[in-house]
Amino acid sequence: MIIKQNLEEILETVAKGCTLIAVSKTHPAEKVMEAYACGQRVFGENKVQEMAAKYEILPKDIQWHLIGHLQSNKVKYIAPFVQLIHSIDSLKLLQEVDKQAKKFNRIIDCLLQIHVAQEETKFGFSQTEVMDFIKDPTLLNLQAVRIVGIMGMASFTENMDQVRSEFKSLKKLFEELKSMPLPENVVIKELSMGMSGDYKIAMEEGSTMVRVGSAIFGQRNYPTV
Ligand SMILES: *Cc1c(COP(=O)(O)O)cnc(C)c1O
């Protein structure tokens, strides 16, 4: 019941043209089904094994988004079905996605993860790195991937002014990329930013995808080992 209520409340606030990704990581398949029963079809996971396991047992019209750090050697497990990979952070990874997508006769949509937060641990390209990356001629050889936008995470802080300014800089980068001459397989249209604590601010700043977990499913219980 609580999931239905949370989801309905959030959906009321989600802007038209913005996609709500229900982040179901650590929550069992039954919880995903509760959200599914309310009509939710887009789910996000941050671990390859967990996403693949849920894909196996859950309805096949669910769109699975990989939102967490992805290792090249694990791409093969999600390549047959993943709808969007939010966390491309290197050419090597993108090349592997391309290789695996070809095996399954698919074109896989990807977002480039951008590092805007203060924390050092976050993966992703800096703003200048992404500008160079997008101009890299080797991108043109990757015909089974399509870069459809960028993803970013704000700093983990109570300071909402800082969070907002990080979202603003992501939006600015998004617009800059859009206005650049781009290779054929780069079509910048998605700006994935905003989580449970900051998705409203992210939407105000122009987000097209929000990734909301705990505000829908409740607190996550991580195993202690
Ligand atoms: C877990 C996670 C989310 C959702 O976080 P909540 O705070 O629970 O909404 C969003 N994006 C990424 C990349 C995540 O790993």
UniProtKB/TrEMBL annotation:
The PTM N6-(pyridoxal phosphate)lysine maps to: K25
Chain coiled-coil ranges: 153-180
Which Pfam families does the protein's record reference?
Answer: Ala_racemase_N (PF01168)
> Which cofactor does this sequence's record say it needs?
pyridoxal 5'-phosphate
Q: Where is the signal peptide?
A: none
Question: Any keyword Coiled coil?
Answer: yes
Gene Ontology molecular function: any one = pyridoxal phosphate binding
Q: Which UniProt keywords apply?
A: Coiled coil, Pyridoxal phosphate
CDD domains cross-referenced by the UniProt entry: PLPDE_III_YBL036c_like
Q: Where is the Alanine racemase N-terminal domain?
A: 3-220
Family per UniProt? Belongs to the pyridoxal phosphate-binding protein YggS/PROSC family.
State the function annotated in the UniProt record.
Answer: Pyridoxal 5'-phosphate (PLP)-binding protein, which is involved in PLP homeostasis.
Q: What is this protein called?
A: Pyridoxal phosphate homeostasis protein
Species assigned in the record = Chryseotalea sanaruensis
